[in-house]
Every structure is written in structure tokens, then in C-alpha cells.
Amino acid sequence: MSAEELLRELERRGHTLAVAESCTGGMVSSMLTSVPGASTAYLGSTVTYSDASKVSLLQVEEKSLEESGAVSEEIAVKMVNGVRELFGADVGIAVTGIAGPAGGSDAKPVGTVHLAASDGRHTVSERRRFPGGREDVRQAAAAKALDLALELLGVE
Questions:
Q1: Buried-most residue among 20, 72, 100, 109 (CB within 10 A)?
Q2: What are the DSSP E strand ranges found in 5-150?
Q3: Does domain 3-152 have CATH number 3.40.50.360?
Q4: 127-142: string of b/e by CB count within 10 Å (b at 16+)?
Q5: What pLDDT is stored for residue 1 in this prediction?
Q6: Is 128 in contact with 141 (CB distance < 8 Å)?
Q7: Contact 153, 122 (CB under 8 A)
Q8: How many CA atoms lie less than 13 Å away from 111 in the CB half-sphere?
Q9: 89 in helix, strand or coil?
Q10: What ranges make up the beta strands (E) of the chain?
Q11: Under 8 Å CB-to-CB from 156, ≥6 apart: which residues?
């Protein structure tokens, strides 16, 4: 699915979107803003790469980061809730992961990404492991984030 499809569906419903990105570093936002008329539905994003920015901008609790680690379902869900609140958006998307080439572990190898999408009533989240190098992981994660938001909205 594409950014254009997501934006058109949001526009059709009269909904707005905000994005919280970590490992994708703004790629999801770039994909969205490449669509003419994106501002009808897209409000903005945060690139919360550091734990400190997740805490200060998205209200993710330090204790949660210490217990679960930044690359976890719990943090992706907290990020999506935080970005929806920050922007007052109807729908949010969040991505956090390990793009590599370093930073992985046995439990969370390079390529591990947690994604979440929420409309405040329903939240969907997913853990994926994307193959390839750093840019491959980032691009795959950004594309999957858009797909996850469409899944949340019930669009196949």
C-alpha cells in the first residue's frame, strides 16, 4: 500500500494523522509529504531517535524504556499514543527498531522493528525482522508502517 492510499482514506473519513519515528528517521514522513495535498490529513511528526526525546516529546516513561528497551512493542505503543496526543491526531503511527549494522543482540537482532498504529479506540502492533542493510531495513519499516495504518483502518 502506498502513502497516497493512506492519505486518501484518511481524507475520505475526515481523519488526521501524526507519526513518531525512531529508526526510520523521517522516512515515513517523507513518503507522506511526497503526496500532493498531504496536508489535508497529515499533521506532522517527531523523529524521536534518542530515549530522552521519547520521554520529553512523547511522554514515554523512563521506567518503561529501562524495563522493555526502546525497541519493543510496549514502547511502540507508547510512542503512537504520545504522538497522537502531541498533535491531536485521530490516527498515529510509530516505528522503533534496530537498523544496523551495529546495535543488535540475540534477543533483538539487527533488522528488528516494532511498529504500532492507533486511532485511540484500537491499536495494532507488529514485530518484524527485515533483512538487508541499514537502508533496506529503514525502507521496509517505513513501508510497513503505512500498511499497518491501512490495516488499522480496515483497508486491504
A1: 20
A2: 17-21, 42-47, 91-97, 112-118, 123-129
A3: no
A4: eeebeeeeeebbbbbb
A5: 52
A6: yes
A7: no
A8: 9
A9: coil
A10: 17-21, 42-47, 91-97, 112-118, 123-129
A11: 150
- Return the C-alpha cell found at 119: 486511532
Which residues neighbour 87 within 8 Å (Cβ) at sequence distance 6 or greater?
A: 16, 18, 43, 44
The SS3 assignment for 95 reads strand
What does the domain layout of the chain look like in residue ranges? 3-152
Rounded Cα–Cα distance for residues 83 and 21 (Å): 10
Query: pTM, whole model, 2 decimals?
Result: 0.96
pLDDT in tens, 18-43: 999 999 999 999 999 999 999 999 99
Tell which residue, 58, 80, 56, 78, has the closest CA to residue 67.
78
User: Is the previous residue joined to 36 through a cis bond, with omega within 30 degrees of 0?
Assistant: no
- Low-confidence stretches of the chain (pLDDT < 50) are none
